[in-house]
Structures are given as structure tokens and as C-alpha cells.
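Supplementary Data S3. Sequence and C-alpha cells for construct A.
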Amino acid sequence: MRILYVDANVWHLNPTAHQLPVLFRQYFPGTVCYGPGFSSQQELARGVRNYVDTAGPFNAVVLGANTTLIGDATDVVEGAVGYLKRYTANRLSPGDLAAFFLDIRQSFRELDVPVKLISVLNFDSYATTQRQIDSLLEQGLGVIGPNEQFVLRMDDLPDFAIHEKHYIRKADRFSNGWYNFLSQYPERVVTAVHFVGSQEFFFEPLDARPYEVAVPGVEYLLRRDAVKRIARSQLRSASKGYFHLYRLANRLGLPVFSNPLSLRLYNLLFQRTLADTRCVYTARGGFGIPIRKFFEIPAAGALLMCSPCNGYENLGFKDGVHYIAVEPEGLIDALVKWLADPQAQEIARAGQALTMAKHSLSARGSQIKCCLCAMIAGTYAGSRWEHGEFRVLEKV
């Protein structure tokens, strides 16, 4: 099986984006990567269609998370280049990136490859327009990302969703379009959520960790509430100084997320926060999509306390077995209880074991491989998570 992975080779703030080509190279040994940072200038100058014709045949082509294809804004290429130059570390010139993006948008439809997929693991699905969905269908594209099990209809969103900054900023674009697409075309969806790499697992016991609680990352509504409650308590909280410093520096225009050393330092400081803390809290945003923290925290060996994301039980995570479900208003009482309860270590280890078995890079690679094999054989009818088991559905 030969896979062509097409994307710009960059180091991303969200590790899933730069771990995805590693996954394909590991689980599909015939994988070839094409794009700026992967290919020579001569190969890029001849274009992706020429590359497929000369280096093929390929069984499938996968478009990575950094490359715009279905964006419908008039300045989509300019916006994509600007984002990569500000929020990812790379040595690629804006001109090379723009030329590559334009080539993909003009040529991808014509590539002579039977299976075409695009990663939507970092995709803003609720703001998807019908024009973007029509573009997917017209180009014969399938997607790698969460299926409808992990996406709520607009009417089912929690009341607090309308107060999230992201909702307010894009409210005029939100619809059920993406949910409807996922529900109507399961055979186009390689069901996958975020995953963690082997370097993200830590094994220090809870009682050896210096901090009692942490709430990492952007402070969406529920997380912000949790941070305020913890600040009023006497608990030893891990510092978020580096997080606020990076955000301030970015607002001032400093290249903290585009410099490879400072970006990797950020990733390292984030991982050490998880590894040095006994109980780590996170919460779903208003849309409830399974963000990466729901896997990063248990991988780091901390006791995950959270307001769970959509479909978390189907992914195998059980309250009281692999994590502790708690809303911000009950967080302090729950922390007092679990910081003193020896069973916390057992739950943390169970969450870590489940993450390693079902949601590591190697596990996700195996799951995606099963889907692609069925797609290439023409028997694929979709895939689903049911009570911790990944199931590939095949046509009768």
C-alpha cells in the first residue's frame, strides 16, 4: 500500500499536526511525503500532479492539517500562509508556501489516486459553510477526523456555548451543516480523534509530584471558572506564568510560536506541568469536541478531573474508573477528596493505560490503517467507537 502525504512540513503548537506524518510513515511503510519542507524545490516547481504521475501509482493521498483546500474566503491562501508563519516553526518562505497552496487548490481534484482524504482533526467544523461541504463532495474527498458521535447539533449545545468568545465571533456562520455531512456520508469519514505520542507519557507517582492542581491551556468559560475557584483555595497550583507570558509576547508581535526553540520550550513546559501535577482539570468548550487535553492529561499520569467532552464514554473513558467527572462548582470539594484518597493513583494509572492502548499514536495508526484498507478495497461503510472499542463497518 502506497500513501502520498501532502502538506507543509512545520512544527505546530498542537502536536497532532506534526505527529500525523509520523503516524503514516510508521503504519504505511510505503508513505511518501510531498510539500514544502518535505520535497526539493525542483519537485515543488513541477507541481503535485506531475509528482503523482512520475512517482506513483499511489493507493491514497492524504492532505495534512496545515494545507488549505476547502476554505472559501477570497484571501484563504494569504491567511493560511500568515497563520503558518506566525504560529508554526519552519524555514519556509511565504512565496513557496503560497505557490504550494495554489497548486494544491488547482490540481488536487485531478490527481489520479483512487482514495483522497483530508485531515480535519484541527478543523473549525461548526463554522463550515455549505460551499465548503459541496467542495468536499465535488472533489470526491473523504475526511480523517471525528464522526457525528463527537459533534452535537446546534439545538443540543449547552446554554453556556453562546457566551464563548469563539461562538460570539463566528455566530453568523454556525450551522448543522457539518453534522449533517458526517451523518449522511459515513463512508467518507475515517473516524479519528486526537492522539498522543510516546514522548508524552510520564510515570511519576502522584505523591511525588510537587503541585496539587493545574488547569492548563486557554481559559474558556468552564476552565476560567475553575481557575478562579482554585485561586481562592489553599491548594498548591502549578504556575501558568509561561502561558500568559507567551500570549503577551505573541500579542506584542514577538515570534514566540514561530521560533523553533521557543515553540518547543512551550511544548516542554506544558508537558512538565502535566507531569508535575497530581490532579489536572480541563473542561469541554461550548461545542464539546474532544480536544487533545482529554488524552494528554491521562497520558502524563495525572488524575484527570473534567467536564467530559462529547463521546468520551464511547472512547472508553469511564467516570470513577479512568477519570473524575466534575463541574467547576464542585471542583474544590472533589480535589480535597481525591488528593487524600489513595484510589486516585489507581484511577490515574487506569486512565493512562487506556490512553496508551486506545489513543496513542500507535493505536490511532492501527485504527486508521484498518479504515484505509477497507476504503481501498471498496468495502468501507464507516467506523465508530462503541464503549472503548473501535469498529470498522463494511458494506454487505
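Construct B, processed identically:
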Amino acid sequence: MNMKPYQEYVFNQRHLLGLTDYSADDIHFVLQNAAYFREVLNRPVPKLPTLRDKTIVNLFYENSTRTRISFELAQKRMGADVVNFSSGSSSVKKGESLKDTIQNIESMKIDMVVVRHESPGVPHFLTRCVDAAIINAGDGAHEHPTQALLDMFSMQQRMGKITGLKVVIIGDILHSRVVRSNIIGLIKLGAEVMICGPKTMMPVFVQEMGVTISHNLEECLAWCDVAMALRIQLERQDQGLFPSMREYHERFGIKMEHLERYPDFVVMHPGPINRGVELASDVADSNRAIILNQVTNGLAVRMAVLYLLSGRMEEG
């Protein structure tokens, strides 16, 4: 096993605001380093002192469980000092602005900020307010770059490649930040992407991103190598975007009969899963699903991103 992360590529990125800003070579390099950190996680003591003198703030203005825990665990596995910020228990409740909040936090001498916010563009705004490296953990329906990176890493791990893969993304395309980052990243790495879902959940812009649109699940599953189901946000049913959860599952849910009919495609989901809506429960638990691998790979990918943006490459 390699004794240190890969360093032969000149990685010039200062932040991770979205995959729009990353070249195909940048993405490949992140995934290459993620493979190293994935090996680290298999060690009896899965820790490295790589970020021992770094201080990282997790600035979450929006509820999150998986992403926040994954980032925090990655940071602690690498020895960083971690500060968790929640808007619900902070001066934000007293009317403090985002700019004042982040500048007050940076005055405490921090090195990196992981931010999640309901408004698109907040990570970009923070780069104009502070000198710390900024990592986007999800901004509105704009981008979620580390989720896309872990998805691509999981595909590469299972399928042996990304170039030439046929990937269908199924569900609420309109409100998903995951789908935008995945489309950008997958197309840059040479995959073909199809999107599938109700017409009421298709954004106007999406065809301009180089994807094929379908509203027929059978057609998509017969075509694809990878089927990624997106979580249907339960509150969307109140907006009349689809008649019922039951009907959504009938039209767009992946069922065991699909696995039997189309024996080759792999099932993915960014989580959390609504069992019986996006995926039948037995599909989620089948050996065709790599959902738990995505979770472990998310930790490795976030360790790689933290390492690459920490400045350690220049020092080493």
C-alpha cells in the first residue's frame, strides 16, 4: 500500500465550491487520493495525523445528519481541531448576518470552513469574506460536490471505470443539488447520463447540460449500467408535483422485478432512503445495491478533499 497520498499532479484548487470549477484531471486526482484514504480506513487504527494543527469549522445552516457526521468523522480521523456551528443555537437567532458570523469565526484563526446553506451561492460568497478554504457541503438546489465525488468513486470502485458508463438518475431532478453535481462530474469524466422522473420535477435548464431525458423507467433500466434513485422529499407531495407516494413508487420506484428483468445494472442512492418509494425495501438490501459502500466511500472522499485543500501537498 502507498505510504502517503498521491502528489504527482499539480492541484491548484483553493476551494471546493462545485464541480463546475474542477477539470476532469482535478476530479481524477481527488478520486485517486480517495483510493488512498479508503485503504487507510481498512487499517486496524484508521487514523492519520495529517491535519493535526488545522482548525476546521462545520458551518451548517441547514439540517443534515449524514453529510455533517461524515465530514466531522473525516476531520477527526485526520487529527484536526473541529468546531461545529449550528444556526439554531447561535447568534444568527439574534439577527447576526452570515458575513458577520463567518468573520467572527475566522478571527478565531481557523483554516477551513465546511458550509451547508439553503441559499445557492453562499460558499462563493464566503470566499469573498474570509481567507480560509471553503468546502461546499450543499447550497440550495445548486451543487453538492462531495456527494457527487463519492458517487463517482463508488461507481469506479464497483464498475472499474467511469468513462463510457451509462448512468440514469431517477426522481426529483428539479429540487436536487446532488443531480447537478453528478451530471457535471460524470459528463466531464466521459459517462453518458440520462435523467428520469415526473415531468413536474424536471427543470427547464437540464437538457442544456448534455443529458437525455426520459419519463419511462423501464426504458432507462434497460439502458443503464448504474441506476441512482434520488430521495423524494415528503413535503413535495403537498405541492401537487405527483398524486401520491404510492403512484410515484408504481411509476418510478425500482422493484425486485426490475432486478430480475435487467440483471446488470447497479443500484445507488445518496440517502436517506424512503423505502417503498424510491426503492423497494428488498432492492435496497440486495447485493445489487452499493448504498452502504457509498457511505464508507464518502468518508474517504471527504478525507481526500480536506487533505488536498489543507495546503499539505505544498508543505510535503
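The CA atoms of residues 94 and 179 lie 35 Å apart. The chain has a mean pLDDT of 90.
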